[in-house]
Amino acid sequence: MSSVAPARSDQGEAPAPSRGVADRIFSLNLRQNGIYVAFALIVALFAILTHGDLLSPENMSNVLVQNSYILILAIGMILIIIAGHIDLSVGSVVAACGAISAVLMVNHHMAWPLAVVLTLIAGAIIGAWQGYWIAYFEIPAFIVTLAGMLVFRALTLTVLGNQGIGPFPDQVRTLANGFLPGYFGNVGLGALGGADLFTLLVGVIAVVGIVGTQWRARQGRAGYGQKVEALPLFIVKMALAALVVMFIVIQLARFKNLPVVLVVLTVLVLAYTLVTTRAVFGRHIYAIGGNLQAARLSGIKTKSVVFWLFVNMGVLAALAGIIFAGRLNQAGPTAGTNFELDSIAAAFIGGAAVQGGVGKVVGAITGGLIMAVINNGMSLLGAPSERVMLIKGLVLLAAVAFDIWTKRRAGASR
Amino acid sequence: MTDDAILRMSGITKTFPGVKALQDVNLVVRRGEIHAICGENGAGKSTLMKVLSGVYPHGSYQGDIHFDGELCRFSGIRDSEKHGIVIIHQELALSPYLSIAENIFLGNERVHRGLIDWNKTNADAADLLARVGLDENPVTPAMDLGVGKQQLVEIAKALSKDVKLLILDEPTAALNDADSAHLLDLLRGLRDEGITCVIISHKLNEIKAIADSTTILRDGRTIETLDMEKDLVTEDRIISGMVGRDLEHRYPEHESNVGEEVLRIEDWTVRSPTQHERLVVSGANLTLRRGEIVGLAGLMGAGRTELAMSVFGRSYGVGITGRIYKDGKEIRVKSVRDAIRNGIAYATEDRKRYGLNLIDDIKRNVSTAGLRKLARRGWVNENEEAHVAERYRKSMNIKAPTVAAVTGKLSGGNQQKVVLSKWMFTDPDVLILDEPTRGIDVGAKYEIYSIINEMADQGKAVLVISSELPELLGICDRIYAMSAGRITGEVSREEATPERLMQYMTRYDEEQVVS
């Protein structure tokens, strides 16, 4: 602007005098970690209300298995939402891919691994179709996937001939419903009774892995002369993580064993977390969602990134479709109804921003688990389904309202 | 003062965060005259008109507005319209799918018992169209009209509101000569009907032809008001008022060590993406050498940004023709990636919209364009990234506690340093900096100039696009001037004067009519 601007020092970064440092750290942490605190509180609330039934070995295993397909969808959805798009078609794609896998395995007696691969490819093609219209033809994702919602439901009905197809091969049912075999037999845990040794070992390895990678990351940062959190805080955090992981693992070991889909889900969460935080591709997703024009002018292939995000969503929806069909042991015409809403809600409850650019895979998983615990806890308490729906709706609204509120406060403190 | 003044604005001061856009500005407009307002980009012309028309309501500025003999405190644009002040903005605001008649009476509908009276609407519109000399059916959709005709519809709309004072912001900027001439005739006609006009224009020949008096603004202050007849005003006279003579020590000393040619652009032509027949840049030639700081001067709409962005991987425009030579060899630059790969960087004039991811931190903004340098097999080394960002934070003196600070919370100057860091990290040979000091306060400007000098000292060629002539004169070794899509002049540091540049920048030749 004008060259006679009064000489005024740069003060954008100076903290607003009216608010203390502690207040700022608190609000920062609340915004970043609020979701995990909320999750812990919700779990505690329902654990108390159900007199511990929520955290019983069998119930915990059930909650994870029953919600695995929503959580898988939530992983794909959060990436799309970070990039500033949306996918309303996933429920129909889940149904269509479940139907395709059923036709291949049941009607054509195809070997199940080949059928699974072909179904995943079908999901990729569906994703590519939608990604093309969104990324290269530049039709808003809302419209393209709304059309997809109808088109792929129609595809489902056509493929199925309007009836359920089943039963599925045992291996596919195991993938959806089953548990890893207990390789080393059981051990006694005193008052807790018998527990599967292999599962416990996996838990220990997981804890060692978590602590080890976190420690290495900390050392790496320190090696570059960056600030790292104080050692006691680090130890407390690691101890807390170890406690949570071991609690879950022990409960699962006391019931049957590790559910197969939990293993699949864990691998996916780790892989996608790595992609979003450390891969060039992941960085590009955030850059596009944060400022599309700036990303384009920084040489990022914005269209290609968006296209591949939808291909990825299609593949994950196909996987969820196989698991869901395997769980019901039948591919049905109404499969996947409202899955898009559940996975979108999971992403937003998990801290995604409505305008894009913000969100984490772990956040979306936590968001999905919050919904799962509310669902499960209320049904344990015998609440009617309309009340569950009401609460879930209000939780979604509250989560986004909270996000916008903290942002506004942060903006006002400038 | 005399009683024939319809408008008297006195002591107007308007402050934006960090910048005083207007400082004690006075404007007196006589009843029934055409009053021109001149000044460089950013001199405060548009801001002044926004104060007058209530876009900036009473209370958001200091000073008094007397209109038609009474003290006015407009609360908004509707309020000022009620008093008979209508502003027509540079970007026309017609709704493309509505008809001419609907547009004219938008917000001011001809109503009969709560329902729109379409017969009256169209009949009244036809009368207004006749008044402005536009031979079109009132039911034609606005999008079927060219820019010139849309301008006339805007004026018809103003007339429908019983306008007493009509403000036009750069009305002929997008018009060809025939349309411009028609518009100027129309304004003379309105003057004869007793309507007062205030016209903001960069085209000095037009001002000379039409204005009765001219007020010149510079750096948010009133410089002078000239009576065009009495004072025998020439274009040169206006120019010297616009540019002033206050070249102080606002620029760091620098001696450039100019080397070989690094980039040459030949016969570069770019068409507008919205109006394909319009040449936004036509036949431009440009040469940049190692270690050289070259300026690109021009007024709003001259095509400077469009030239730069089209060279930067065709990120603007359609139907681009011409050749680019890098180190003497012709290169193809079809995408932003091509441009970056060939060592060309472009730092945008609008860093908030096109330059930064405002919700992300400094380090990730610094690394976006050169992320591949930090990655192996697609995986980013985040520690190295933080290290690189930290290096730039220190060398560019970005005032933030850590590189994890979110860029949206930095001041303009620091944001600009982040943008410059981002492009320096791609290790370019050519840096195009578009308005690098826009919206930045004086102290930070000096730092930016020092950074530019350092870039040149590292052997990079720097092209600086700026609307502030003193800035270009202060830091450049050589300056090109653009007007209406053409390079109209090139001067060395020694030959450059503000007057001379302004002459080139306001040169509108007959044959370069846009159509």
From TrEMBL, chain A:
It is found in: Cell membrane. The chain crosses the membrane at residues 34-52, 64-83, 88-106, 112-134, 141-163, 183-211, 231-252, 258-275, 305-325. Pfam families: BPD_transp_2. InterPro entries: ABC_transp_permease. Keywords: Cell inner membrane, Cell membrane, Membrane, Sugar transport, Transmembrane, Transmembrane helix, Transport. It is a multi-pass membrane protein. It comes from the Bacteria. Part of the binding-protein-dependent transport system for D-xylose. Probably responsible for the translocation of the substrate across the membrane. This is Xylose transport system permease protein XylH. The gene is gguB.
Automatic annotation (TrEMBL), chain B:
Pfam families: ABC_tran. Residues 7-244, 263-509 form the ABC transporter domain. Gene3D superfamilies: P-loop containing nucleotide triphosphate hydrolases. InterPro entries: AAA+_ATPase (IPR003593), ABC_carbohydrate_import_ATPase (IPR050107), ABC_transporter-like_ATP-bd (IPR003439), ABC_transporter-like_CS (IPR017871), L-arabinose_ABC_transporter (IPR053466), P-loop_NTPase (IPR027417). Keywords: ATP-binding, Cell membrane, Membrane, Nucleotide-binding, Repeat, Sugar transport, Translocase, Transport. One of its GO terms (molecular function) is ATP binding. This is Sugar ABC transporter ATP-binding protein. It comes from Actinoallomurus spadix.
